[in-house]
Amino acid sequence: MVARTTVRLLTRAQAAAHLRVTLDELDRLRRAGAGPEWGQWRATIRYDFDGLNAWLQATGGLPGRELQSDHNQVPDITKRVRMARPPG
User: Fold this and answer.
1) What is the architecture, at CATH level 2, of domain 1-88?
2) Exposed, middle or buried, 25 (CB in 10 Å: 0-12/13-18/19+)?
3) What is the rounded distance in angstroms from the CA atom of residue 20 to the CA atom of residue 83?
4) Each residue's pLDDT tens digit, 29-51
């Protein structure tokens, strides 16, 4: 029997929300080699959820920003759409 490992990969937007930074700031960190580890598949950049948390713990977060304790939750960045009521 082979053990399976689940890896939660986040988009750039999800990773930025998780780190509480803008996409531009996350991109600057990546280009400078100072940000969390990332991977690329074709043109898509992904961040490992556990890798983001490890980076936060190792670096203490971003300069000038306090590390918050709720970084173990995957951010909900889904759009909430108000559905129109059916006529009648």
Assistant:
1) Orthogonal Bundle (1.10)
2) middle
3) 29
4) 999 998 999 999 888 999 999 99
CA distances from 37 to 11, 26, 52, 67, 82 (A): 13, 11, 7, 18, 36
Distance, C-alpha 22 to centroid of its chain = 11
Type of residue at 31 = R
What token pair was written down for 61? 């977060």
CA–CA dist 25, 31 (Å, integer): 10
Q: Which two tokens stand for residue 32?
A: 């400078």
Read off the pTM.
Answer: 0.65
| Helix H or strand E segment including 29 | helix 23-32
Query: Mean of the pLDDT values across residues 26-30?
Result: 93
Residue 9: beta bridge partners? Answer: 48
Phi, psi torsion values for 83, nearest 5 degrees: -85, 140
Amino acid sitting at position 49: F
